[in-house]
Specification:
By secondary structure, this protein is an all-alpha fold. It has a domain of 81 residues: Serine Threonine Protein Phosphatase 5, Tetratricopeptide repeat, CATH 1.25.40.20. Strands 1-2 form a two-stranded antiparallel ribbon. A hairpin with a 2-residue loop joins strand 1 and strand 2. Helix 9 packs antiparallel against helix 10 and helix 18 runs parallel beside helix 20. The longest helix is centred in the C-terminal third of the chain and has 55 residues. It starts with 6 loop residues before the first strand and ends with a helix.
Length: 430
């Protein structure tokens, strides 16, 4: 009678209850165990022995003819599994028994991809010594070094570079290993790649360079490396015309914003919708980033293609502290967007009651100020008008006096001539 092994679910996967304990390993064959039995995950007893980390069971199963290349539901072989879980002794046993180092799972990962993703340098070294391809590509076009960089295994990344890993390739999204070093915040690997000559301005399918990726993730240190050592262009734009500053501001990374501004990043650059970095920061509610940009004289009344200012966006999104800050800096609270709506109206539409209260309070304050200013203007206008009239009268009197003096004719003579002039006029009309 053939005895199939039983399985149970556990937090770390499917485990065999009869394989991997080591107590009856030598009797597996005589006990009639089906060494090619499959569980619901399509794992074989060999997979389970690898998961259990049991070398004796693994050795016995192989000696009994277990299919060393058998794949589970995900296309994972025993070698993939051993490499992923860092079991170097089992990797060596499998390789001695001719396990295929080029085999791939459903994601086209090789055992080297698996070991690299977990940072298992001893296993990477063993696999490379057995001619594993250092530049094998998975379904995303990524080589093993992509996995070491993405997962923060700095030393192993350096090791693969020294072993000749291709650093100039790009994956199916157009991203190079430098993009991933930037996203991971790995300045050490970024320096190594730049020294090797990687293209610092290579853009992915969305138009982002490594600098965009670094500051979007808040890695100002890597951003500095890219700008100072790699001479990255701080004005570069992605497919939506967003500069690195747009990404840093929109994600609230104040250190990256300050670093970019020190490198003369354009504060008033506009994306395809006419938005500036300040509008991005206000829309996302990043108060500290708004403070930095405003202190650097960013235009607080700048508007996007919809006529919305930073105040409109803060009001609509309910970012009270940003709104208060903008009002304090003198933003135009009465500005309307292309639909004729003020920030107050947008806040009301979104039921942002705290914003509405703040703007109404600000509106009352502005009315009082406006009334006081108008009163002062009226007073000043009256004083100025009286001064002009007085000056005009005194000027006319002086002019008349000067004219009469110049003619040298006494004023009484004019009164004597009046009848004569009237008579002349009468006969002329006749």
């Amino acid at each position: 009678m053939v005895r199939h092994y039983s399985i149970s679910l556990c937090p770390r996967g499917i485990r065999s209850d009869t394989i991997g304990t080591g107590s009856d390993d030598q009797n597996l064959g005589s006990a009639g165990v089906d060494i090619e039995a499959r569980n619901n995950d399509l794992s074989t007893p060999l997979h389970e022995a690898i998961r259990a980390g049991n070398k004796p069971t693994t050795t016995v199963l192989i000696s009994l003819g277990a299919n060393i290349q058998a794949k589970d539901r995900n296309g994972t072989t025993a070698l993939d599994l051993a490499a992923l879980e860092g079991k170097v002794e089992l990797v060596e046993v499998l390789l001695v028994n001719k396990a295929d180092v080029t085999v791939t799972d459903i994601e086209k990962w090789t055992p080297l991809h698996s070991a690299a993703s977990r940072g298992h340098e001893p296993i990477v070294t063993v696999l490379l010594s057995h001619k594993a391809s250092i530049d094998a590509r998975d379904s995303q076009g990524q080589t093993p070094i992509y996995q070491t960089i993405k997962n923060g295994h700095r030393d192993l990344s350096s090791h693969l570079l020294l072993k000749g890993a291709n650093w100039s390739v790009s994956d199916s999204h157009g991203r190079t290993v430098l993009h991933y070093a930037a996203m991971a915040g790995d300045g050490h690997v970024a320096k190594m790649l730049l020294e090797k000559g990687v293209d610092v301005m290579a853009a992915d399918e969305t138009g982002k360079t490594a600098l965009h990726c670094a500051v979007k993730s808040g890695h100002s240190g890597v951003g500095r490396v890219l700008l100072d050592l790699g001479k990255a262009d701080v004005t570069s734009v992605d497919n939506k015309k967003r500069t690195p500053l747009h990404h840093a501001a929109g994600n609230g990374h104040s250190d990256s914003v300050e670093m970019l501004l020190r490198h003369n990043a354009p504060m008033e650059a506009r994306d395809i919708h006419g938005s500036t970095p300040l509008l991005y920061a206000a829309n996302s509610g990043h108060e500290s980033t708004v403070t930095i940009l405003v202190n650097e004289s960013a235009d607080i009344n700048a508007i996007d293609d919809q006529g919305c200012s930073a105040l409109h966006l803060a009001a609509k999104q309910g970012h009270l502290q940003v709104l208060i800050q903008l009002v304090h800096e003198g933003v135009n609270v009465d500005a309307t967007n292309v639909k004729g709506k003020t920030a107050l109206q947008l806040a009301s539409d979104e039921d942002n009651d705290n914003i509405v209260s703040e703007l109404k309070k600000e509106g009352g304050s502005r009315k009082n100020v406006k009334h006081n200013v108008e009163e002062e203007e009226v007073k000043v206008e009256k004083v100025e008008r009286n001064r002009i009239l007085e000056h005009s009268h005194s000027g006319k009197a002086s002019a008349d006096g000067a004219g009469k003096k110049a003619e040298g004719v006494p004023s009484s003579v004019f009164y004597l001539l009046i009848p004569v002039l009237m008579a002349v006029t009468f006969f002329t009309v006749r």
